[in-house]
């Protein structure tokens, strides 16, 4: 069953979430790859550049006072690098890992983040987010993410992004919320 699951999702067994249910491809509309349904309409193939497993990206940030939990969230918290900014550097690293595989007019939005913040980091330290592609499923891309300061690993987890067409996202938001402007 694990081998069928790996073929269906094109990922290593370690990259599959524990709750992944494997089904035979094309058995029903629910198992049709995401690039044949959803954002681009049913029965419309959406072709994107293949993203290879192992593609990596980084994002570097020097911790400033605005990045601290005590400033960003609540003054009752200690003056350490906040978890939302940890996630930000990991997400940006993931985007950098796949940037070269995106066509003009495409982007990749975050759809899932599972992160453990392991170590407190003070202001002034440089932190580096890392991401490595572990697999794909149609337009969905799976990553292993981690972050380091100059001493040790400060966080790790998994992340997913979905390749989207920017104009289509704007079109759907406009239909739902009315015209949007840069100020909104």
- Please tell me what the overall shape is: globular
How do the helices and strands follow one another from N- to C-terminus?
Answer: HEHHEEEEH
Would you give the CATH topology of the domain at 51-177? Thiol Ester Dehydrase, Chain A
Spans with pLDDT under 50 lasting ≥5 residues? 1-11, 15-44
Q: What does the main sheet amount to?
A: 5 strands, antiparallel
Describe the structure.
The protein has 184 residues and is of the alpha+beta class. It has a domain at 51-177: Hotdog Thioesterase (Thiol Ester Dehydrase, Chain A), CATH 3.10.129.10. 22% of the residues lie in helices and 29% in strands. It has helices at 2-9, 69-72, 83-98, 166-177; strands at residues 56-62, 106-117, 126-137, 140-148, 153-165. It has a five-stranded antiparallel β-sheet. Strand 4 and strand 5 (153-165) form a beta hairpin. The longest helix is centred in the middle third of the chain and has 16 residues, at 83-98. It starts with a helix and ends in a 7-residue tail after the last helix. Residues 1-11 and 15-44 have low confidence and may be disordered.
């Amino acid at each position: 069953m694990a081998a069928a699951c790996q073929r269906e999702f094109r990922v290593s067994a370690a990259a599959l979430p524990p709750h992944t249910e494997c089904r035979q491809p094309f058995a029903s509309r629910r198992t049709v790859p995401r690039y044949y349904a959803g954002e681009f309409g049913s029965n419309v193939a959406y072709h994107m550049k293949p993203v290879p497993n192992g593609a990596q990206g980084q994002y570097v940030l020097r911790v400033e006072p605005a990045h601290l939990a005590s400033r960003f969230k609540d003054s009752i918290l200690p003056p350490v690098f906040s978890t939302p900014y940890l996630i930000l550097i990991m997400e940006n690293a993931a985007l950098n890992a796949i940037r070269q595989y995106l066509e003009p007019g495409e982007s990749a939005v975050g759809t899932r983040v599972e992160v453990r913040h392991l170590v407190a980091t003070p202001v002034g330290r440089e932190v580096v987010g890392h991401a490595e592609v572990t697999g794909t499923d149609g337009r969905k891309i799976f990553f292993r993410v981690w972050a380091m300061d100059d001493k040790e690993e400060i966080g790790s987890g998994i992340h997913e992004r979905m390749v989207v067409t920017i104009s289509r996202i704007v079109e759907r938001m406009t239909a739902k919320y009315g015209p949007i402007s840069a100020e909104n």
